[in-house]
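Design a sequence for this backbone.
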């Protein structure tokens, strides 16, 4: 079995027709989520229809990128392309505007994580077209 070679950056996500608005905004350091036009509830990951209603009546809205840690895990067995980052931390973040997003937690080497800890979005450029969201402490 071939051993995975560390890369300087993990794989680059591919935008789909549904997720394209999110990635275009991320390329400008803006976090965009889909919101249901009737219920005002957000959903993440982008989908062609609303998970609650089954309708395609969502709209894209920029959110602050601020939130609180709901849960986290320290990853010791990496996903493909992340071998040179182990151990790394993935967190579930409850955003201020609603919705939960899962992303890497970074810049936390000397920080004690706890539920409810304030975090904010930060960005990792992976290509000319893709800027990936992650979260760091909001001090």
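Sequence:
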């Amino acid at each position: 079995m071939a051993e995975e070679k560390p890369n300087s950056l993990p794989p680059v996500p591919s935008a789909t027709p549904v997720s394209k608005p999110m990635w275009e905004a991320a390329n400008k350091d803006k976090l965009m989520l889909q919101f249901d036009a009737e219920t005002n509830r957000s959903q993440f990951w982008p989908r062609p229809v609303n998970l609650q209603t089954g309708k395609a009546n969502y709209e894209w809205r920029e959110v602050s990128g601020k939130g609180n840690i709901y849960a986290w895990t320290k990853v010791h067995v990496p996903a493909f392309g992340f071998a040179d980052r182990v151990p790394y931390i993935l967190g579930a973040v409850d955003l201020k505007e609603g919705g939960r997003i899962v992303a890497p937690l970074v810049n936390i080497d000397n920080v004690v994580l706890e539920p409810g800890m304030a975090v904010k979005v930060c960005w990792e450029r992976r290509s000319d077209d893709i800027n990936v969201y992650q979260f760091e402490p909001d001090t």
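The helical segments are 20-26.
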